Each structure stands twice: as structure tokens, then as C-alpha cells.
Amino acid sequence: MARPKALLFKFPGTNADGETDRALRMAGFLTEVKPIAVVDPSTLGDYRLLVFSGGFSYGDYVMAGRLAQLEIERRLGSAIRDFHGAGGHLLGICNGFQILSKIGILPPASLISNVSGRFVCRWVPLHRVARNNPFLATLPDDFELPVAHAEGRLVTPEPEDAAEYVRTGLAALTYGDNFNGSTASIAGLQDASGRALGLMPHPERFIDRHQHYDRDWAAAGHGWGHYLFQSIHDRLAASA
Amino acid sequence: MSESASYQHLPIRSLSGEELLLLSKRMKLSLTEEDMLAVQGIYREWDREPTDVELEVIAQTWSEHCKHRIFGARIEHVKDGVTETVDGLFRTFVRQVSEEIMAGKPGFVLSAFHDNAGFITLDENLAVCLKAETHNHPSAIEPYAGANTGLGGVIRDILGAGLGAKPIGSLDVFCFGSPDTDPGEIKGEDVIHPRGILRGVVRGVRDYGNRMGIPTVAGAIQFDPAYLYNPLVYCGTAGVIPRWAIGKKVEPGHLVIAVGGRTGRDGLKGATFSSAALDDTSHVEDQQAVQIGNPIEEKKVADFILAARDARLIEFVTDCGAGGFSSAAGEMLSECGGIIRLERAPLKEQGLVSWEIFISESQERMVLAVKAESLPGLERLAAMYETELCVLGEADGSGVLKVSHHGTEVCRLDNRALHEAPRQHRRSTWTTPSPDPQPDLSALDVAGTLKALLSDFAVCSREAVIREYDHEVQGNTVLKPLAGGCGDAPQDGAVLRIDGSEQLLAIGLSILPEWGKTDPEGMGLAVVDECFRQLVCTGANPDRIALLDNFCMGNPNDARELGSLVETCRGMAEAAKAYGAPFVSGKDSFYNYFEVDGQSISIPVTLLLSGMGIVERVEHVTGSTVRRPDSALVWIGPSSRDLGGSVLARRLGLGNLRVPRPDLARNLASYRILHKAIRDGLVLAAHDVSEGGLAVALAEMSFGEKADLLVDGDLDAFDLFNEAPGQVVLEVPLAAREEVCARFAGLPARVIGVTRPGAGRLLISGRIDESISVLKAIWKAPLAAHY
């Protein structure tokens, strides 16, 4: 069985590429991290998964993810959307979720300043809403992950859109404790196909039990985050 | 704009001492009359006049900030009427002590004092380093930008250590006036209220550290009216490096390359600005000395440096900190000599005169020496990571630093002259105060006192600040600043996993300025003990701990203030020697005093003692929070009747009590036994007893909310609230309690209680019976209300 290949984009200010790369490799992916300056449409080649990891692309001094989106469009044109349309998978974590939202692959939504107006680094309980998402297949309905962001409050064009996302499962994940004030407590969104997932929490920071704040945590064999990478790896490996 | 050098010659050879001093003041050189006379002597010998560029370079190089001249001074110290000569504080109390320890531990310290940060061995392939600096003056007048660039600067120190270390974790320690200071009490027009300083500084650290993707994992905040006018901001960063990349050397023919941000007028004369006192004109006159931070620029530089290092394209690297190109190039070319061409430096704006380009402290710049054949590879990497690179000059083996601007030589300095500042001679005194008698605590309301201590600014939770920092990025923060069953209980230190190693890095720190007000030597002893103890509690091997000393003080020209510094150094050195923990790096900051209404307000001598320790296996990592409802609580308690410096004494208004002194040999013995017990799996949790004493330590241990704590040892108010060094509380399995106590035979260790299932209560000796969640709420509230 060929190991699926994942490509991580690195923008100036992307900073979670190292641990995301580690998590992908641990799940069995072959990975490559590429600075955006050396990426062109031909780069996407035979990758099965494109990953936008956490950080502060271009400093997030204008709306988070906006400059990265413009740079992607300048360098890659429609290549990302074409990749997705042709059956490719995409994952955006934290700043990567913000970027994915801007590219327009996920249902319409924006990630704006937390209600507290502050950066928040903590752990948060999560609930899995999406039933058939290939990234969440081996996760239980309730689990927890760390979060760390200042702009993670999800808002939709109309408030009732959010409820609709939850009803249809496009809201793949919701917070058990809505600390940032997201509409309908949405923590992550998927597209209709489930091949693209964006989430604010950081699965790459909880791969093994030593990363948990409680020395006695033993709810699963690995950290919950590992199961996200494992799920998508197994799905892609099986359909190779 | 004309394409030519912009500089002038300044005739100084015929000036009198007074005129020289006037020139120094006019140019803001911060050089004394003696220094200026030495400069004059050099130019008389050379038979020419200096250029303004040369004078600026000498001023930067000889500034207190860069040269640490007070730590090098010969001091006549009078202690209680007895005179002694201290042949340099650094030499006597830091270097000699460390060299002795290192000689007994071959292979532990891989580099100390001469590089941007000192390295210790992690394993056969990797080494780790830690560096801390202050950014006090800039943070006083512009809190956000000052703290922002303070952290940015120390991160560059790590990037410029060896051939480039990877920053893996940061610490930040602040000393502020109390956040509830009455604004009417503040003298001086533009002095910023402590709450404004707190908010600005925290956000400055947050926005640099978080954007760089470096977890901020450790810290402390001291609140004391003494810091109202001179807040202190310490920033530190740890790094990891492959051992092959520690050595660095410039050779003739190497190109000198600058990479990163452009050069502008921001941050002119920061080094000399920070070598003078603040006054109420500082906010207007010294704004230009505060730099502007751009963390994304630095992130790109960091990615570039680490990639270039691994491609073996770097021969030498250092950061542009205080003094800008002049000190970076000066350091790089000090032995080899070479030429720097100022017109090659990319500028933020046109019209900078020659000296401005050379000493600007614009941020996010690194200077490298590389082989000519490495240039194409470096240019490829710079394009890949979108950072700017220029060839500034080259090393030539002449031993002379030459600077040209559009073809005109504007500076020509023999580096031997440059690096020999006149040695200072100083006087200091210390008179040991006679302490007041011990208070009578027999009527003290113990339960009420515990609650008051938990809500004291010295003790209360720092959660509001900690959660603004990303302390988990990089995914390696195994022991987090807040942990335990609910993820919000305080820990003794932070422990970081290191990619590519089985071994881990622990970071601890101690700062006890209150102790030093009456007993600076006792403070020096206690901070080393506390930092060392924290590291052992988190699981570090006591034989593999290295320390950093970061001093701040007021006016070194005041003999009593300088005397307090001497005594602090003495205590610190004695404890470091006893514990076998060498210093590998350190920094000092003077002139932290403020002049207003003809009065001079100084900070107390403040020593931040931080340390790194090696935790040899992830299983050794130990938190501070109770884990089981069926354990025993063991108190390693060299208890004391001395309450000097304690939070209780401060609350009672007792400012002159005897400060507890540690028994260093016995403490070290118990730390070794503790470490062995951790290795043998006998310790579930370990918490050092510090601010607030034993009662507060027990309350903090209970905040995981996994068990009731029932403490029934024979404990009086002194036992519960003294802060004597050496104390630790352990949670051990009930079945192991006798074995653990037996291991500590002959040392003050005993079982004082148990944990049990229950409704969440802390019970101590029949005098305290409180709900843990209520205590936690009391502990969490105070700072959150002000931040």
C-alpha cells in the first residue's frame, strides 16, 4: 500500500508547520513543507492532501488569512480549487482554517476576533457533528483539543446559516464550551463532500498523552489529535 | 538625494576634560570624562581627529549596556566597617565560580559567556541554551513596543548563538507598581500607570512570541511600589542546536552578509539611552531610542538562518542588537578585521547619515560571515523565505575595522583600541541592619490569612496573562505553566520536549526583590535555591542544571546601592558553588532610577535567577498538582521562625524581619534524594514552598480538584506561612510513604497528611477547613480584575 503524500504550505508567518508535519508523518503520510515562494500550479502534482497549518500568515495584520488567500490566487490561480474539484483533500488548522475560508472552498463564514477581544490559549471540549467526515472517522463524538487564537469566533452571513450548518453536518465540530463566542458554537467546517475540513483547534498539539495538561489522562491510546490524522491517512491509503 | 558619505571630523585633541564631557553630553554618548580623555589619548597617539562615526562606535562599544563596565570594575567594598577589594563582580562571583564547577563536570557546559548564549549538553547530538535580557527603559516609555522588541531581541540572541540555534520556548518576568495604585500618587507628568504598563507589556510579549511561533512557557510578575517609575521587563528564550554547530569563526576572505529587516532611524542610540537614568523628559526626548518590532520579518529570518545552518552555509552569525551594525560587525571583525560598506545596506528611508546607518538598532537584522562560494545557496534560501540579503563587506585579516560610505572611509579603528575601555574604580558599602524581633502569631486567624495570601498580588493566579501567550505552539510543552486535573493549577517550572531527543529541557526561575531590601546576600542565596529546587521538582537531574543571572539596579554611583549589589552577588555565588550549578550567561541593567522634583527614586537591587535543567526521561516529568485520592503528603520542611521577605510579613507591615538563610549542604542532599525518588517512580507530585509558604503551597496543590487534602501535622502559623528556602511538599503513594521518609533520614522530612476522596475540601490542622473551589476562585480573581 503506497503511503499517501501530503503537502504543507508555508507562508511568511506560518509557524505550526513543524508539529503538523510531525503529526502527519506519525500517521503514515509522506510529507513535504514548501514555502509559498517556490510553489506553482505544477507543484500540487501527486499530493493527496494539502495542508494549511497554524500561525500568522503575513502577520494577520489585515483580516486573518486574507493576504495568504491573495498570494495563493496570484501564484496558483484556480489550482487549489481544481485540486479539490478533482477529488483532492484539504485540511486547514487555525490560521489554515482562516485561509481555507477565504479561498471559498468551505461554506460561507468568517473568523473574527474572539468575544473577549483577547488571544486565548487553553483546552476545550469538542463535539463531532459531521457523521461521515473522512478526517473525523475514528474520533468519538466527544473529545478535547487545545486552542490558541485571537480570531476564532465563527460568524456566518446570516445567523440562521450557522444553525443550518449544524443541522446538515457542515459544521463538522462544535465547542462544548463556546469560549470565543462562535455562532452556534461552531469550531470547524467541512464542505459538502467532506473532502475539505477547517478547524480552529490544534489536533497536531495532542498526538500523545504527554501533551495533555493532566498527567493521568488515559482516555485513549494516543492523543485525540492523532486520530484525525490517522482517519484521513487510512481513508486515502485505502483508496490509493 | 546625493550619493555620498555624510560624516564629519570632530576636533577633540585640544579640548579640556570639561569640554570633552560637554561634547559627550551633546552627542548623547554617555561617556564619562575619564572615558573621553582615554579616547583623546588614543587619537593623539594616532595623530588625527576622530570622525563622528568613530566616536559613535566607541560610545556604543564602551557603553554600560554593551561592555558591562560596572561588573568589571574594581570595587572597594566596606561591609559593617570592614574593607575588602572585589576584583570585578563578574570575575569574582560569576566566572571564577562557574569555571571551578565546570572543571568538575567535563562535557556538561559546551560554551559559556563568550557567545550570545551559553550551551549545555542535552545528549550526544544536541545542546540547549537559554538567554535572558531586560528591556526596561523602552518599556517604561512605550510599553508595547518596548516589550515587543525586548522579546524579539532575545530571540535573535538565540538565532545568533553558535551557527544559529532554534528558539523553542520563552520566559517573561515583569516588575511593576501595584495595578491598584492611586493615579494621584504618581509624580511626573508622563509616567504611565502600572495597569497601562502591564497591559502594554503583556501584549507586546504576546504579539512577538505568538507570531514567531515560540511558546511562552514560564514567567513571574512582581508588584511593588518601588517599580512604579522604573518597571522591569525581562525576556528570555531557550534554544536547541546540533552540537556540531556550536563553534564559529570568521576568517579572511569571508563575506559579511546582513539579512532581514531594513535599516532606518528607529532605535538610534538605544545602548547609550539605556545607560542613563530616566526623567520626566524621557517620554519626549528618547522616543527615537525605542525600536519598532516586526515579528513576521524575524520569523522569515529565523526560517532562513536555520535552513542555511543545516545546509552548512554559515561560518559565523550574530544578531544586530544594541549598537546595530557597529557592534555586530565589531564583534565579528574584532580579531580578523575587515571592511563594511554602508551604501550596501538596504534602508527604510533615504537621507540617513553615515553614523546613523552604522549604529541604528532597527530590528530583525542578523549579520553572517560566509564563504564566497556559499553566496548563491544563501541567495536561493533568502528568496525562498522572502527575506532580504545583502553583502555588506568582507573580512580581510588586517585586524582593523574599516567602514566606508560611497567610497569614502568614514571610520578606521584598530579593534584593540576599541575593546579596551578604561577600567572603573568604585566604592560601595553595606551595613547589616539589626532585624526587629519575631512577631507574635499566636492569635493569627490562620484561615483568614490563607485567603488573604491567595488573593495577594504576590501569590494570585497569573492565568489572565498566561492564556494570552501561546504556550503550546511547537507541540512540545509537556509541563505547562497551568496544568493538573483542571488545567489551571500553577506549576514549578516548564518542561519542553526536544525534537530528536529522549531528554527534555526544564526551565525555572526565581526573583525575590523583597528579601534583598534588608538582606541582599540572603536574597542571592534564596534565588539560586528556589530556581534549583523548582527544576528538581519538575524532574531535572540536579547534576545537570545551569544558571543565568540577570541583575537590575538603580544608581551604581550610590555606594549603598552598589553595596547591596555586591552582597547579592556574594550570596548568589555561594549557593551556585554549593549546588554545583554553573552560570553560563547573564546580563545587567543599571540606572533604573527616576528623577523627579529634585528626588531620585531607585528600584531595589533585583536579581532574576533563571535556570535550565535536563530531565532525562519523559517519565520523570513531575507536576505540582495532587493526582490521587489515596496518597500521603510529605513535607520536606526546613521550617523557620524567620519571616523576613515573606508575603505574610509584607501584609503585616513588618519590613525588617530576619530573612531565612538556607542550609545549602542539607538542601542539596534532600534535592538529590528527591530526584532519586522521582526516578524510582515514588513521587506523584512535587511543589516547592515559595510565596505564601506551606499553606499556600498545599492549596495550590489541591487545585487539580482530584481529592480532599487532610493535613494534620503539628503545624503552627510559622510553619504554615514562612518561606524558608529548601521546602517542598510531595505527593507519594500511601504505600511508599515510609520508604520515602526513610530515604530522607536525618533531613527534615515527614508525613503531614493524606489525600482522600471527598467533596473538595482542604483541611489543615483543625484550623483551616475550606472548599477547594472557593479558595481557587479567591486565588483567580485579583489579577483578572486588572488585566
Short description:
Chain A has 240 residues and is an alpha/beta fold. In chain A, 26% of the residues lie in helices and 23% in strands.
What does this structure look like?
The complex is a heterodimer of chains A (240) and B (787). Chain A is α/β, with parallel strands linked by helices and 240 residues long. Chain A has one domain (5-238): Rossmann fold (3-Layer(aba) Sandwich), CATH 3.40.50.880. Chain A has helices spanning 17-27, 66-76, 79-85, 95-103, 159-168, 224-238; strands at 5-10, 30-35, 49-52, 89-93, 110-112, 120-128, 142-149, 153-155, 173-175, 186-190, 196-199. In chain A, strands 2-1-3-4-11-10-9-6-7 form a 9-stranded mixed beta sheet, with helices on both faces. Chain A has a two-stranded antiparallel sheet with strand order 5-8. In chain A, strand 10 (186-190) and strand 11 (196-199) form a beta hairpin. Chain A is globular, with a radius of gyration of 16 Å. With 787 residues, chain B is of the alpha+beta class. A 7-stranded mixed beta sheet of chain B has the order 11-13-9-14-12-15-16. In chain B, helix 9 packs parallel to helix 12 (295-310), helix 12 packs across helix 15 (375-384) and helix 20 (520-538) packs parallel to helix 21. The longest helix of chain B has 21 residues, at 559-579. Chain B is globular, with a radius of gyration of 26 Å. The two termini of chain B are 48 Å apart. The interface between A and B is large, with 35 and 41 residues.
In CATH terms, the superfamily of chain A is Class I glutamine amidotransferase (GATase) domain
Order of strands across the biggest sheet of chain A?
2-1-3-4-11-10-9-6-7
Largest pleated sheet of chain B: 7 strands, mixed
> With helices defined by DSSP (H or I, 4 residues minimum), what is the helix count of chain B?
27
Largest sheet of chain A: 9 strands, mixed
Q: Write down the CATH class of chain A.
A: Alpha Beta
General shape of chain B: globular
| Average residue pLDDT of chain B | 94
Q: Indicate the percent of residues in helices of chain B.
A: 25-40%
Structural class of chain A: alpha/beta
What oligomeric state is this? heterodimer
What is the residue-averaged pLDDT of chain A? 96
Q: What's the tally of helices of chain A?
A: 6
